[in-house]
Automatic annotation (TrEMBL), chain A:
<feature type="transmembrane region" description="Helical">
    <location>
        <begin position="21"/>
        <end position="42"/>
    </location>
</feature>
<dbReference type="InterPro" id="IPR052522">
    <property type="entry name" value="ABC-2_transport_permease"/>
</dbReference>
<protein>
    <recommendedName>
        <fullName>Transport permease protein</fullName>
    </recommendedName>
</protein>
<comment type="similarity">
    <text>Belongs to the ABC-2 integral membrane protein family.</text>
</comment>
<keyword id="KW-0812">Transmembrane</keyword>
<feature type="transmembrane region" description="Helical">
    <location>
        <begin position="62"/>
        <end position="85"/>
    </location>
</feature>
<feature type="transmembrane region" description="Helical">
    <location>
        <begin position="105"/>
        <end position="131"/>
    </location>
</feature>
<dbReference type="GO" id="GO:0140359">
    <property type="term" value="F:ABC-type transporter activity"/>
</dbReference>
<feature type="transmembrane region" description="Helical">
    <location>
        <begin position="171"/>
        <end position="192"/>
    </location>
</feature>
<keyword id="KW-1003">Cell membrane</keyword>
<keyword id="KW-1133">Transmembrane helix</keyword>
<feature type="transmembrane region" description="Helical">
    <location>
        <begin position="225"/>
        <end position="249"/>
    </location>
</feature>
<feature type="transmembrane region" description="Helical">
    <location>
        <begin position="137"/>
        <end position="164"/>
    </location>
</feature>
<keyword id="KW-0813">Transport</keyword>
<keyword id="KW-0472">Membrane</keyword>
<dbReference type="InterPro" id="IPR047817">
    <property type="entry name" value="ABC2_TM_bact-type"/>
</dbReference>
<feature type="domain" description="ABC transmembrane type-2">
    <location>
        <begin position="23"/>
        <end position="252"/>
    </location>
</feature>
Length: 257, 308
C-alpha cells in the first residue's frame, strides 16, 4: 500500500473507533466524570480537609493530578481492550485481516482511538476538578508529553489484553486484578514518603508510580521520583508494549487459525 | 502472446490445524483469469480452509499460493488487493450500519472517502440493499446479510471474487437474481470462485470445477467434460453364456467386467438396440439389462466415496 492509502486506512479505523465510543458515551465518557467527581468530593473535600498537607500541597491539590491520570489510564486501556476484543469476538477483525492494511496501521488506528478517548476524558475530569480546586500548571511540556505517552502505553496494554482474551471475563480480569491495584498503589492518594523504605522500593517496580509522579510534577512541580527516570521508564514500557503488540499481530497468534 | 498468468495457482498446499488435524493434504489447482470456478466437496472437506489460506485468515502449513502471479509469501498485501472475499459465516459488526460497513471496508483498501462512498452506494444499489443502507446490519434478513457481504467484497473492485457458500439459506428467487448478478460481473471480467453444496448451482454458473474431499482434490476438470461424461449412459448387460475375450460389439466403448457381465457406454443419440443387434448376431443372449446410475450427484458421491 502506498503511504497515502495507508493513511486512508488509518483514518478509517480511527474514525470508526472514535464514533464507537462517542455513540455509547454513557458507557465511555460519563462514568469517569461521575466517579472522579465522587473522588474529588470524598477524598479531596470531605476527608482531605482532615488530612492536611501532603507533599507540601493541600490534599485536594495533591490528589487531582493522580485522579486525572487514573482516568486517562483506565479509559485508554478499556477502550482498546473492549473494542479490539469485540471485533475479534464478532469476527469483524477479519475485515482488516483480509485487507492489505499493514499491521502497524491497524495497531495505530486502535491505539489512537483509545488515546483519543483517554484525552477527552482527561479534559472532562480536569474541567470537573476546577469546581474543587484551582489548577495551576507547572510545565505544559511535561503534562502534554506524559499524558500522551501514558495513554499510548495503556492503550497498547489494552490491545495485548484483547489479543489474548478468549471471553468477556478475560477483558475484565486484568483491569480489576492488575490495573486497579497498580493505580491505587501508584501514589495517586499518598506520597511515597509515607511508605516504609522496603515498600517504597517495591513501588518502584510499578509503572504507575512513574506515570502519576511525572504528571504531578508537570502540574505541581513536585515528584517522588526523578523526572528523567520517570520518562525513561515510561518510554521503555511503551516501546516494549509496542514491540510485543507488533509481534502478536505479525505472528497472527490468536487472530489467524 | 505469452499465456496469461492464472488468477489463482495453488501448489501442494497443506494445512495442519493447531490441534494436529490435517485439513489439507497437499492440494494443487489453478483457476484461469475470467473463469467461473466451483470448489465442491462434502462438509469438512477443506473448502473453507483453502479459501481461508488464500485470504490470510488461516496460515498455511506448506505449499504455495499465488494470485495473479503474486506469491502470497512474497507480497501478501499486493495479492490481497486483487481478492474480494465473501466468507461462509457472517463476520461484520452487527451494530454497525450497512453503508458504514461497506464504506469502511473500502477504506481498509486505501480508497479515498469520496470514492469509497460512491462505490458503496453503487454496490448497495446493485445488490438491492439501498433501502437498508442506514439500518444496523443485525436487522437484515439472512439473505440480505449475504448480499451485504458481497457488496463489501466488491467495493475495491477485485479481479478475483471468492464466495464461500454464497447461496446458503437464500430463497430460490433471490438465488436466481444472485446468479444473474454473479454472471454479469463474471462477464465483465471478474474471475469468480465459489463453493456450494447445490450441484445445479455449479452446473448453472461454472465453467470449471474441483472436487475436494478429506483434504485432497479428487476431480479437477471442466463442467462440460463432466457433463459429457454424464450424458454418456453406462449400461450393464448380464449375459447367459460366457462372454468371449474380445467383445463382438463395434461403435461403442465396451468393457468386459467378468464372464457374464458387459459394460457398454452409450452416448447421447446412440441406440441401445444396436448393441442388442450386434450381440444377437454373435449369438450372445442377454438375460437382463441395468442402468448404472450416474447423475451429477451420483458421480459426486462416487468420487467422494472413492477417496474415502
Ligand atoms: N480451527 C480449526 N481447528 C481444527 N480443525 C479445524 C479448524 N477449522 C476447521 N477444522 C477442520 O478442518 C476440516 C476442514 O474444514 P473446512 O471448514 O475447511 O471444511 P469445508 O469444506 O469448508 O466444510 P463445509 O462444507 O462444512 O463448510 C474439518 O474437519 C474441520 O473440522
Ligand atoms: Mg466451509
Amino acid at each position: 500500500m502506498s503511504p497515502r492509502e495507508q493513511f486512508v486506512a488509518f483514518m478509517t479505523i480511527l474514525r470508526k473507533e472514535i464514533r464507537r465510543w462517542m455513540r455509547i458515551w454513557t458507557q465511555t465518557l460519563l462514568p469517569s466524570a461521575i466517579t472522579m467527581s465522587l473522588y474529588f468530593v470524598i477524598f479531596g473535600s470531605l476527608i482531605g480537609s482532615r488530612i492536611g498537607e501532603m507533599g507540601g500541597y493541600t490534599y485536594m491539590q495533591f490528589v487531582v493530578p493522580g485522579l486525572i491520570m487514573m482516568a486517562i489510564v483506565t479509559n485508554s486501556y478499556s477502550n482498546v481492550v473492549s473494542s479490539f476484543f469485540g471485533s475479534k469476538f464478532n469476527h469483524s477483525v477479519e475485515e482488516l485481516l483480509v485487507s492489505p492494511t499493514p499491521n502497524y496501521v491497524i495497531l495505530m488506528g486502535y491505539v489512537l482511538g483509545g488515546v483519543a478517548r483517554g484525552l477527552l476524558v482527561a479534559v472532562i475530569v480536569t474541567l470537573v476538578s476546577l469546581f474543587f480546586t484551582d489548577l495551576h500548571i507547572h510545565s505544559y511540556t511535561v503534562v502534554v508529553a506524559i499524558v500522551l505517552m501514558t495513554s499510548i502505553l495503556f492503550a497498547l496494554a489494552g490491545f495485548i489484553n484483547a489479543v489474548f482474551a478468549n471471553n468477556f471475563d478475560d477483558i475484565s480480569i486484568v483491569p480489576t486484578f492488575v490495573l486497579t491495584p497498580l493505580i491505587y498503589l501508584g501514589g495517586v492518594f499518598y506520597s511515597m514518603d509515607l511508605l516504609p523504605e522496603f515498600w517504597a522500593n517495591v513501588s518502584k517496580l510499578n509503572p504507575l508510580v512513574y506515570v502519576v509522579n511525572a504528571f504531578r510534577y508537570g502540574v505541581l512541580g513536585v515528584s517522588d521520583v526523578s523526572l528523567p527516570v520517570a520518562f525513561a521508564m515510561i518510554g521503555l514500557f511503551t516501546l516494549a508494549a509496542f514491540a510485543y503488540s507488533m509481534h502478536l499481530l505479525n505472528s497472527g497468534k490468536r487472530l489467524r487459525q | 502472446m505469452a499465456a496469461m498468468v492464472p488468477a489463482l495457482t495453488i501448489e501442494n498446499l497443506s494445512k495442519v490445524y493447531g490441534n494436529g488435524f490435517e485439513a489439507l493434504k497437499g492440494i494443487s489447482m489453478a483457476v484461469q483469469q475470467g473463469d467461473f470456478f466451483a470448489l465442491l466437496g462434502p462438509n469438512g472437506a477443506g473448502k473453507s480452509t483453502t479459501i481461508g489460506i488464500i485470504c490470510s485468515l488461516v496460515s498455511k502449513t506448506g505449499g504455495r499460493v499465488s494470485v495473479y502471479g503474486i506469491d502470497i509469501d512474497e507480497d501478501f498485501p499486493g495479492a490481497k488487493k486483487h481478492i474480494g472475499i465473501v466468507p461462509q459465516e457472517f463476520n461484520f459488526n452487527q451494530f454497525e450500519k450497512v453503508r458504514d460497513i461497506v464504506v469502511n471496508q473500502a477504506g481498509y483498501y486505501g480508497l479515498p472517502r469520496e470514492l469509497a462512498e460512491a462505490r458503496a452506494d453503487k454496490y448497495l444499489k446493485e445488490l438491492g440493499l439501498w433501502d437498508k443502507r442506514e439500518v444496523a446490519s443485525r436487522m437484515l434478513s439472512g439473505g440480505m446479510k449475504r448480499r451485504l457481504m458481497i457488496a463489501r467484497a466488491l467495493v475495491h473492485e477485485p479481479r478475483l471474487l471468492i464466495l464461500d457458500e454464497p447461496t446458503a439459506g437464500v430463497d430460490i428467487e433471490m438465488r436466481r437474481s444472485m446468479w444473474d448478478f454473479l454472471k454479469k460481473i463474471n462477464a465483465e471480467g471478474t474471475t469468480i470462485i465459489l463453493t456450494t453444496h447445490y450441484l445445479e448451482e455449479a452446473e448453472a454458473l461454472c465453467r470449471n470445477i474441483a472436487i475436494i474431499n478429506h483434504g485432497e482434490i479428487v476431480e479437477h476438470s471442466s463442467v462440460r467434460d463432466l457433463l459429457r461424461r454424464l450424458h454418456r449412459e453406462v449400461f450393464i448387460f448380464d449375459c447367459v453364456g460366457e462372454l468371449p475375450e474380445t467383445i463382438p460389439v463395434s461403435g461403442f466403448v465396451t468393457r468386459r467386467i467378468d464372464e457374464h457381465s458387459l459394460e457398454v457406454e452409450v452416448e447421447k443419440g446412440q441406440a441401445v438396440n444396436e448393441v442388442f443387434r450386434q450381440l444377437d448376431a454373435a449369438g450372445i443372449e442377454v438375460r437382463s439389462l441395468r442402468n448404472r446410475a450416474n447423475r451429477l450427484e451420483e458421480m459426486f458421491v462416487t468420487l467422494v466415496e472413492g477417496a474415502a
